[in-house]
Task: structure prediction
Amino acid sequence: MPDLLASDINYGDAIRAALEKIEGSLKHSYRLSRRTIALLLLQNDEEIYEMVKARENSFSHIQEIITATAASFDQPLNYVITIKKQELVNDLVTAHVKERNNTETNSFSELLNKLTITPVTGIPILLLVLYFGLYQFVGVFGAGTLVDFLEADIFERYINPLVNALTDRYIPWPAIQDLIANDYGIITLGVRYAIAIILPIVGTFFIAFSIIEDSGYLPRLALLVDRIFKKIGLNGRAVIPMALGFGCDTMATMVTRTLETKRERVISTLLLALAIPCSAQLGVILALLSGKPQALAAWVIFISLVFLFIGYLTAKLMPGEKPLFYMEVPPLRMPTLANVFSKTYTRMQWYFLEILPIFILASVLIWAGKLTGLFDLVIKALEPVMELIGLPPDAAVAFLFGFFRRDYGAAGLFDLQQSGALTTTQLVVAAATLTLFVPCIAQFSMMLKERGLKTALAIAGFIFPFAFLAGYTFNQLLKLIGGI
Amino acid sequence: MLKKFKKRSKCCGGEQNPLEFHGLKKIVLVGNPNVGKSVLFNRLTGAYVTVSNYPGTTVEVSRGRGKIGDEYFEVVDTPGMYSLLPITEEEAVSRRLLLNEHPEAVVHVVDAKNIQRMLPLTLQLIESGLPVILVLNMMDEAKKLGLEIDLPGLEKSLGIPVISAVFIKGTGIEELKRVIKENARLIS
Result:
């Protein structure tokens, strides 16, 4: 084969002439070669266009060359240039890469690959993954066994009584006693929620999620749901932030950056804030409802319907180009234990360091609120809303917690359920409303950062009343069918 | 532990160039999503950024300090890019980095299995005059598929160093370090 000159690719006479002329007109120096700048200009790269326009005096001349060259081709220059480059790559590959006919390809992993992306088998596989990975491991083992042990055997039996007794004996002021101990104390509530409820749930979730993630299952899931997602104006690529949302909505909101159009990013941000519960919240909700399968089913169906309905509606209302599906599908791999371990560890460390101060701060704020009477005032104000969606006044506390963090609110609900204050219907309605209800502070600030003030406020302003309206509707529906 | 965490969160994610990297030679890792840039970053710096088996995990620029021989380098991990002509925001971030900073080495990491789809970016990088090193990662998976790649021939045609690697197992790291060091010496 002829010597290939990668640094001087032959794009054909017309483009070559244009490139030489543009390169000759570029008087300034750029970090990238003049050839590259010229190529990008020919391909209508906006950022480069603005940069060159600002620096070069003879820009109108360059502009003329671009227009003239583009006019002399039937196809866009971007296409012509890409094809030329790919031709050279094909030559390179023919010359240097040999493909042996290989019979020992891993037929098992190929079979598994097919099974995961074909709807008939893919959906049962998804259900199996959800059942064993999430429901059994996170819901039953993490949120059941582990939480019971830490909550009942460690905190309720040893730590809380000890802290209560110590503060009672050594601190003479009841106000300070309440800050540390009793119903809403830093240790008896804040630290207890963080360590005994959230930590085991999030820990088991992160382990399950890391394994699923490293196996390469998620991109296949994306292919599977692509059809449904297209209906709501998203493409399969959006499943990645959505799936990540089940880990942490804040992180997922950041990852919406990988979506191609602004419209997709806004729709995903809204859906993440509204209908995707984060791992901590999900875990606690699984724990809340795991004793009653029909309640869990009602919750799943209702949240899925809200997700699809709002997704469909926004896609209809928001104008914009329909996205194309475009994604890499990596091979299925056996997850390596070391990577799963270090990933789970870093995530838990990051998570724990982030939530512990917030939980403590929340305890302090609630304490201050109680002291000043503000807390009771807000609870009083929320009570009619609770009544409207059929919940006891006590549930208002959980919703107030929910302002601080999604999982904190769910943990409050967990507490309420443990004391037997809720019927099954109330429980499901409360869980659903709380799932839809405000994104946590961290997620909201990420929305501000990624989408800007206007969009973030609009999303929050929509979610707030919508959550309660949905809760109300849900309650009425359940009542209509005689409760569950 | 808290201190360590704080330090890490300071070093990663920022787009500005913090003082701790002042005067260090720079290595920039680029390539398609999900080819192993973050694994390489972790191997070179000993820091930890999340690695997973799906595209688009890295959405921000991470910076870390790595040692090759007895010299320190600044290592920059970039969000995945398919082309120098960006379509998504993350690709734009990566290209802006190449436009604004002066790397001593640009390591283009590709998935050897999909070399045909990834070489166009290599050509663009060579065209742009950057000091490119091509790394064919996941060579084990490529071999399993029956691909045989003639490294010396590819090196000659492209006119840049080409290295084969399996980062997840640590293969190819030492050779890459050696090539980076030689390249950096040539430039300075």
Observations:
- The mean pLDDT of chain B is 81.
- The two ends of chain B are 38 Å apart (CA to CA).
- The helical segments of chain B are 2-11, 37-45, 89-100, 115-127, 139-144, 151-158, 173-187.
- Residues 22-187 of chain B form a domain with the Rossmann fold fold (CATH 3.40.50.300).
